[in-house]
Write a structure and sequence with these properties.
The protein is built from 17 helices and no strands. By secondary structure, the chain is an all-alpha fold. The protein has one domain (4-407). The chain has helices at residues 4-20, 25-46, 61-79, 95-125, 129-137, 150-164, 169-179, 184-193, 196-203, 208-224, 230-259, 265-287, 300-306, 312-320, 329-358, 366-380, 391-407.
Length: 416
């Protein structure tokens, strides 16, 4: 059974590449699941269970096929998406707002460094990173907010929220390179500001936000690639390699500090990190298919307004001694929150909504591009879990959609 997802997604990848004739985002999402399915096999072959987020569980045919089916359902809407080229792009007419967004995030970045810079340096340089990470996971570290009170604390919180939304600036970075005549400093500035979620990850000594940033950059690059002049592609590649080296160094430091001296070792911890989702999906299917729902991580905005029902899944955590704070794919996390049938309904609902929204796209304005990226993040980052599971991230979605709408407020022209 352990080999079925890998074979399934390999075949799906071949089908997409044969149909699209090039690497596009539907193939990229599938590649992500090929990789995680491969490492799921490695976990089983090496028998590295029992630590760092994965326990051995019975892998049956039903959850295996359900895992493959639900994920495939969320990839299908992207297959019919037309290639983004200069010829089907629609120009931003409200360039004043584009500039305002740049300077706004410049201010947010400066304030973020002011409020949290010292805390980041302290944590990254601390010799007991593993101990600090444990305090953060247990909720005994407030990420530096305790350093401020009153108005300053409110400002710090707002800066944190806006900083968490900055990864969407990848869209503006590539749009600026492809269609605008902005300076290299302007474009690099956008890219630096987009790294604020990574800085938030550094506050919690987390690795996932770095992985998300790298994955997002690659995905948005693939989406824009055919609309970018060949002369500019070399600069993009060089910039990405530079950022990749810096972030790779951070990942190495954090991984060695957290797992280097443990029995599992740093290498095995990375294998488990990459491959645990399928194993935990099967575990959640077996142990967490309970009555009741929790909307806290499904719709954080609505939950914050109307409250949530009893969290049955968390009650189950204690009765079954299951660690649910792990990667289990977005479908597995839906099982944790709303049960198996809820997870099935979620994937079908996503398929219907995404298909209706994406199949209408023939030309790309900035709103369409942002919409594609918002929808893309759900299955693409879903190799780990629910990306829009926090209030900050869901608010970021609505904020970026509103901004993209006003960027298109004036009458557009087709890009030529």
């Amino acid at each position: 059974m352990i080999y079925i997802p890998f074979i399934w997604f390999i075949l799906l990848l071949f089908y997409i590449l044969k149909r699209k004739k090039r690497l596009e985002i539907s193939a990229l999402i599938t590649i992500a699941y090929v990789i995680t399915s491969f490492f799921a096999i490695v976990i089983d072959v090496k028998q590295i269970y029992g630590a760092a987020g994965v326990v051995q569980t019975t892998i049956n045919l039903t959850p295996t096929l359900l895992y493959c089916f639900l994920i495939t359902l969320t990839i299908l809407p992207f297959i019919k998406l037309p290639t983004f080229r200069r010829e089907n792009g629609i120009r931003i007419r409200n360039l004043e707002l584009f500039n305002i967004i740049f300077y706004f995030y410049f201010g947010v970045f400066v304030l973020f460094v002011f409020f949290f810079g010292k805390e980041i340096i302290y944590k990254v340089q601390n010799p007991d990173i593993a101990g600090l990470r444990l305090l953060i996971v247990e909720g005994e570290d407030d990420l530096g907010f305790s350093n401020y009170t009153g108005v300053l604390r409110i400002i710090a919180r707002l800066v944190f929220i806006f900083g968490s939304s900055a990864m969407f600036l990848h869209v503006f970075y590539f749009y600026s390179i492809a269609f605008l005549t902005r300076s290299a400093i302007f474009n690099i500035g956008i890219l630096i500001f987009s790294g604020m979620p990574i800085m938030i990850g550094m506050l919690s000594l987390d690795r996932s936000k770095v992985i998300y940033w790298i994955m997002s950059f690659i995905a948005v690059a693939v989406f824009f690639w055919h609309s970018i002049d060949s002369s500019k592609k070399k600069g993009i590649k060089s910039t990405f390699i530079l950022f990749l080296c810096v972030f790779g160094a951070y990942l190495t430091v954090i991984t060695l500090a957290r797992y280097g001296e443990q029995d599992i070792g740093a290498e095995n911890s990375l294998i488990i990190y990459a491959g645990q989702s399928f194993h935990n999906f099967c575990l959640f299917y077996d142990k967490l298919n309970l009555p009741g729902i929790s909307l806290e991580h499904v719709t954080p905005v609505l939950n914050s307004i109307f409250g949530s029902s009893d969290d049955i899944s968390r009650a189950d955590l204690y009765s079954h001694s299951i660690d649910t704070q792990v990667f289990a794919s977005f479908s597995g996390m839906m099982i944790r929150e709303i049960g198996v049938w809820g997870s099935v309904m979620y994937s079908f609902l996503y398929f219907v909504i995404a298909s209706l929204l994406l199949r209408k796209i023939r030309n790309y304005n900035i709103t369409n591009i942002v919409l594609v990226v918002i929808l893309l993040y759900i299955p693409y980052f879903g190799i780990f879990g629910l990306y829009y599971s926090s209030l900050d991230r869901e608010l970021a979605v609505w904020g970026i959609l509103i901004l993209s709408y006003f960027l298109n407020k004036r009458k557009p022209d087709l890009l030529r």
